[in-house]
């Protein structure tokens, strides 16, 4: 069978899906996604086209890392109306076909997403390129004396990008706040 050659899309014409996850811990083999924040951005203008946020109902909260849950700001009351992960992943796959996925340390988020897309048999059509905003920040700051660490909070502070106060005070944070801050950092660094 001869496959039709797909027309290549100029990367500038692709949408960018900024994604941030909160999880019950760092181990992809035993921890779960408990929150997803997304911004769909036009690849040329860098303007926000759509937003998506969902808290996810964890299936195995007992395997969660207490420190991870604290950092993610998890509480049973706040997650009372959480959605199933499968439903959320279906929503995201429809939100941004052919988009490049971007985020702060985006490989971490992508590993979790890819695992669960496969687990649930959900097809997605994201572009295979990932945009890691921390790498762009590294290139921008590498010859400077600041920041000492490439944390999202420190970079936001230096670039005067508003961020949820939890980052600077060591409190919990959420996926939507983080992805909005990541998008703003990206826009400042590349625009």
TrEMBL record:
Molecular function in Gene Ontology: 3'-5' exonuclease activity; nucleic acid binding
The keyword Nuclease is assigned to this record: yes
Protein name: Exonuclease domain-containing protein
Keywords for the protein's UniProt record, in alphabetical order: Exonuclease, Hydrolase, Nuclease
Signal peptide: none
Lineage of producing organism: Bacteria, Candidatus Woeseibacteriota
Domain Exonuclease: from-to ranges: 15-191
Stored SMART domains: EXOIII (SM00479)
Domain of life: Bacteria
